[in-house]
Sequence to fold (461 residues):
Amino acid sequence: MTEVQILATLTEYFAKEQGTKALGPDDSLLQSGILDSLAIVKLLSFLEDEFDVEVDDADFDPENFENLRSIAKLVAAEPQ
Amino acid sequence: MDFSISSEQKAFRRSVSDFAKRELGGDMRAREKQGAFFWDGWHKCAEFGIQGMPMPSAFGGLELDTTTCLIAMQALGKECRDSGLLFSLNSHMWTCEIPVLEFGSEEQKQKYLPKMIEGKLVGGHAMTEPGAGSDAYSLRTTAKKVDGGYVLNGAKVFISNAPIADLLLVFATTNKELGWAGITGFLVDKDTPGMHISKPLEKIGLKTSPTGEISFEDCLVPDSAMLGREGQGSAIFNAEMEWERSCLFACHLGAMQRQLEECVEYAKDREQFGQSIGKFQSVSHKLADMRVRIELGELILHKVAWMKSRGKRAPLESAIAKLVVSESYMDSSVDALQVRGGYGFMSEYQADRDLLDAAGGKIYSGTSEIQRNIIARFLGL
Ligand SMILES: Cc1cc2nc3c(=O)[nH]c(=O)nc-3n(C[C@H](O)[C@H](O)[C@H](O)COP(=O)(O)OP(=O)(O)OC[C@H]3O[C@@H](n4cnc5c(N)ncnc54)[C@H](O)[C@@H]3O)c2cc1C
Fold:
């Protein structure tokens, strides 16, 4: 899957989770509180199921979850 | 999913059971009265290999898979009545050893793991604070970057093993504004200046597992004490909770098996109205319910282990497992007491221990309400 396709899937996921208008790729997820401590746990499971990637806990870095674009980049870089 | 158990796993379970029956007895009531930690049992567990079960052989561990660890913890829960010792073992293994293994640098692993596996170092983890319990990530303990390290300031409460621990995994915030993303873990050795550990707190249950408070006053730890990277604290905490919510609660499942066996025996022997009380449906149905709870608890715990063995995350499943097993243990403890009537209320039968252990299980590792919140969040609520 390309980064663009991943971004589209993530946008859809967050729209459903938030029940509000779609987020832009660079909108802040952390500072805005959209990605709280439970939302991140749920998101990591979603990434594993949806993209078949293993986001290793040891490589976990909050910076990678700053916005949709950074998450898409992370997923695209993970071995599938 | 295949949850069948191999012959090697069965043999290991047998050896753990035999070991626990042989070595982990003693006068539990006396230890409980004194609030004494069972050091002899701790060291014997280390000799047997318990503390090293999930650890790589390179560090002296047995390198067992998650399912085998779970089966072993269940066997310990069934055969060892010193639930405080088991609780301390669980805290040590899942909330200190495992994080060091999964997030530690090579140097940290070499420094701590072999000694933790040998039982020479006792570990614990310190997350909860007076103002931050269920809302753990609102913690206030700070870690301020200074030349050569970090300075910790703050207070922790209800920390298992703290009074006997040599090593504590301490969670602090390196950037309060980031909330959960600013939480960082530090490995703090017991004699570090500025860290003060209280005497054991008096508890209503798990009396043989020492619990304490910790305060940090300008406690300087070197950069090398950081576990993982800045901001990785939540990942560490989530990973350890998945382990704890499955393997620790396997001990409860073992205790429920013991409870059931004893109750069935009692229901066959005890006669009223000219027949054994087990012939009364209201009694036999309680025992049937106890059996059902064990079966369901076992299934969900094995599912978590199965997922973890495949390198999958199991946040939802481990929350369900923790909730199901802890609440089942409570329900079965109440039933076990009722089935024995007045005899169950006498100290001799030790029903109080199961009841109070079960009550604790609904609080630590995230309360039942918090597990339901996690499950609800996965429902999109
Ligand atoms: C035996 C024992 C050992 C422990 N060991 C450790 C340890 O080793 N390390 C460590 O860091 N901590 C440890 N703890 C602390 C434990 O994790 C906390 O007690 C637990 O997370 C609850 O926090 P609290 O006690 O502050 O209760 P609170 O968070 O104040 O909760 C009080 C009540 O309010 C409910 N509640 C709170 N928030 C919500 C919500 N959002 N929705 C619904 N209900 C809510 C709770 O479920 C509970 O019923 C231990 C606790 C015990 C009892």
Summary: Residues 10 and 60 of chain A are 18 Å apart (CA to CA).
